[in-house]
Amino acid sequence: MALTREQMAQRVARELEDGFYVNLGIGIPTLVANYVPDDIEVMLQSENGVLGMGRYPTEDELDPDMINAGKETVTVRTGGSIIDSAESFAMIRGGHVDLTVLGAFEVDVNGNIASWMIPGKLVKGMGGAMDLVAGADNIIVTMTHASKSGESKLLSECTLPLTGAGCIKRVLTDLAYLEVTKGAFVLKERAPGVSVDEIVEKTAGKLVIPEHVPEMHISG
């Protein structure tokens, strides 16, 4: 069975390390804030100028003026800061973000990412994604493995305008966790109940399959 958005966020949260400064992109990545392990300290950064975001607010905590880059209401943890966008982007461009989690429309075997434009469709636009992929060495993309019409999003070559070139090393989809290396997607884990054959069928780019591909551990 394919992972839900919440389960994808839960799996990505396992990649967080103590002391990390982390930027969470719009969409599935923002949900990662709800699954930060209790035994580590991380600082979640949003390019609109929030450093130290917490989980989504309850109804009692909701403050309409406290938003992330996707204009969703958020909380701010103890010790968090509100900074201007110039400082926020200086942090991003200066390479001070330890992990970036982004959504995407397409990723290809060379680590290229397309995430900001679909010709003929209304999309939110680039936002800070170009700065994030240029300023980060450690990026995880989260997205569905295929489109609603069944077309693979893991390609030999991106067909949409690129956000960044050669910058993606890891992809977490609703079917699998993969690494991007040497012109191929390497299958590292599969979602519970998802067969290797299904992943092969829905991956258009070159796919390397190790002898043993474990199922992801997803709690709850």
From TrEMBL:
<protein>
    <submittedName>
        <fullName>3-oxoacid CoA-transferase subunit B</fullName>
    </submittedName>
</protein>
<dbReference type="Pfam" id="PF01144">
    <property type="entry name" value="CoA_trans"/>
</dbReference>
<dbReference type="GO" id="GO:0008410">
    <property type="term" value="F:CoA-transferase activity"/>
</dbReference>
<dbReference type="InterPro" id="IPR037171">
    <property type="entry name" value="NagB/RpiA_transferase-like"/>
</dbReference>
<dbReference type="InterPro" id="IPR004164">
    <property type="entry name" value="CoA_transf_AS"/>
</dbReference>
<dbReference type="InterPro" id="IPR012791">
    <property type="entry name" value="3-oxoacid_CoA-transf_B"/>
</dbReference>
<comment type="similarity">
    <text>Belongs to the 3-oxoacid CoA-transferase subunit B family.</text>
</comment>
<keyword id="KW-0808">Transferase</keyword>
<dbReference type="InterPro" id="IPR004165">
    <property type="entry name" value="CoA_trans_fam_I"/>
</dbReference>
